[in-house]
Design goal:
The complex is a heterodimer of chains A (about 140) and B (about 425). Chain A is α+β, with helices and mostly antiparallel strands and about 140 residues long. Chain A is built from 1 helix and 11 strands. Chain A is elongated and about 75 Å long. The chains are: A alpha+beta (about 140), B mainly alpha (about 425).
Chain lengths: ~140, ~425
């Protein structure tokens, strides 16, 4: 009895382990496919905190802020994300004398910086977490 | 081409399926007299692994594949160890639970305590203390004096020194600006590493000596600015290796049994020939768990676990293990590439090199591709200190996969 099951299981084990390996390789492949060479101009950038493979639409790992950056659902924004919780024109980040300011453009679901809702314009500092919908970005200022 | 059906859940569930099936196999095997404790601990471990993989998705912004890969490796290992010796398998289960705790401990220690990159002297002193303890209290086990016994528990200090070496190298190369002004600092570092290797040589722990040298060479190759030093290092290694072969008998024996073990089959070459017989016996699909004879291989539960797995589970699983290690090392290098903080980048390279070299040396050793040296296969072999240090190393890799740059700047600002 045991011998029979053991012989059967050895094939099952091989199949499971190979499925496991290939599913991981596939996930890694998905991860690599969406890497674009990181060319970060300027000092500040947004870094995606969410795991990219958990998001069902196109999104990059890094967005560099070059003077001005607009974010929204419509494709004429610098960063456009096809997310139902993001408004057509959601927010704007503006650089002024090496300081960065985030402005919420009256979005429906709001923008949060470190769990605090942005009412008008807020100055960003290094390490701030910007949250919109279920997406979280880290603001990094190397300047 | 790739639909949405594949998600991070798929490998997690496959792992769970694998573990449950192995439990079923054990249940069928022990149908007449069931030992309940082993099931409780096995189920506890399965839960810990599953929950850990789940939690890690939440708490870390970094990599979430490495823990999965390691969970698979240790599940394969524990099945084999329990089949060879149920008492050791039982202990190994407990070690895994301790190891996972150590993993989280390391993760949070490195995350919330700042200033790891400034404590170089501490790492050096600690390494020498560990060597000293080994020489004073060490006992000879399987030809090498690398075990100390405290209160009935054997322990291998070199497993911890391995990690300290990575910290020392990361300390040196991430503080390059500080050392540039001092003359001969690169030669002092080289002397330091070679003193470690020499001490390991005296302990006859050749495998670990090679790991030390490998880690040093890889990190030096990547970060050393004076490229001539790499040549000096290779030259020293060549001279030292040849001298070691001529002067020490135990090195000579390893090479002789590697070139032709068949003429020493009844003494020196016994281990390696038995290992080859076992792998050949298994074939592509293996004999089936519990149906082979891995007990003929000496030390089948530690150094020769790979041959035992090949015999009972087949070469395919053996190839699978090699592939798992390859993905693990690949992830390690990718983590290093993405890390902006130099100290953590070097730590990540060091740890992935450690996993890579260690598995190459021992797998190569048991299949007679390289001379055999007695070290463990990380996460698979039986051994408390080995499991502990491997999980600490994994914790280091996990923390290195997170974005540390903004935290470090914060730290610098508060110090100003």
């Amino acid at each position: 009895m045991y011998n029979l099951i053991s012989v059967l299981f050895k094939y099952v084990f091989i199949i499971i382990i190979y499925l496991f390996i290939f599913s991981i390789i596939r996930l890694i492949y998905l991860d690599i496919k969406s890497i674009s060479p990181v060319t970060l101009e300027g000092n500040a950038y947004l870094k995606l905190i969410n795991r990219r493979d958990s998001i069902p639409y196109k999104i990059k790992e890094h967005y560099s802020i070059d003077g001005e950056l607009t974010l929204g659902r419509r494709s004429d924004n610098d960063v456009y994300l096809n997310d139902p919780f993001i408004s057509k024109k959601h927010l704007k980040i503006v650089e002024d004398e090496e300081e960065y300011y985030l402005e919420d453009l009256d979005s429906a679901n709001g923008t949060f910086i470190n769990t605090e809702r942005v009412e008008d314009v807020v100055k960003l500092s290094n390490g701030d977490i910007i949250k919109l919908g279920s997406i979280e970005f880290l603001f990094v200022d190397r300047g | 081409m790739f639909n949405k059906s594949i998600s991070t859940k798929t490998p997690r569930n496959l792992l769970l399926l694998f573990e449950i099936l192995s439990l079923v196999l054990l249940l069928v095997n022990q149908w007449d007299n069931i030992d309940k404790t082993i099931y409780y601990i096995w189920i506890a471990l399965i839960l810990i692994i599953y929950i850990s993989n789940f939690i890690l998705n939440r708490i870390t912004s970094g990599d979430n594949y490495i823990f999965l890969i390691v969970s698979m490796l240790m599940s394969i290992g524990i099945i084999m160890i329990y089949r060879i010796d149920s008492e050791l398998g039982f202990k190994q289960l407990l070690w895994f639970i301790i190891g996972i705790i150590a993993f989280y401990f390391t993760y949070f220690m490195l995350k919330y305590i700042r200033g790891w990159k400034n404590w170089g002297k501490l790492y050096i002193v600690l390494s020498y203390i560990l060597f000293l303890i080994t020489f004073l209290l060490g006992t000879r086990k399987y030809g090498a004096i690398n075990w100390i016994t405290i209160g009935g528990h054997s322990f291998q200090p070199a497993e911890i020194t391995k990690l300290l070496l990575i910290f020392i190298l990361a300390f040196y190369y991430s503080n390059m600006d500080m050392f540039k002004d001092r003359k001969y600092s690169d030669y002092i570092l080289m002397g330091l590493v070679y003193s470690f290797i020499g001490l390991l040589f005296l302990q006859r722990d050749l495998g670990t000596a090679v790991i030390f040298l490998g880690i040093y060479m890889v990190i030096q190759f990547i970060h050393e600015e004076k490229r001539m030093n790499i040549l000096y290092n290779i030259g020293l290694f060549a001279v030292g290796g040849t001298l070691g072969y001529v002067l020490f008998d135990h090195v000579k024996v390893r090479v002789q049994t590697w070139i032709n073990p068949w003429i020493y089959i009844d003494n020196k070459g016994y281990q390696i020939t038995q290992s080859l017989f076992a792998i050949a016996e298994g074939g592509f699909f293996g004999t089936g768990i519990g149906l082979g004879n891995p007990e003929f291989i000496p030390l089948a539960y530690t150094d020769f676990i790979f041959s035992a797995i090949c015999e009972e589970m087949g070469i395919f699983i053996g190839i699978g293990i090699i592939m798992l290690f390859m993905i693990l090392v690949y992830r390690g290098f990718k983590i290093a590439l993405n890390q902006n903080d130099k100290f953590f980048r070097i730590l990540a390279i060091g740890v992935s090199t450690l996993f890579g070299i260690q598995s190459i040396i021992i797998i190569g050793g048991v299949i007679k591709v390289l001379p055999l040296t007695g070290i463990t296969l990380p996460f698979v072999s039986y051994g408390g200190s080995s499991i502990l240090s491997s999980f600490i190393a994994l914790g280091i890799l996990q923390i290195s996969s997170e974005d540390m740059s903004y935290k470090e700047e914060e730290y610098c600002e508060t110090r100003k």
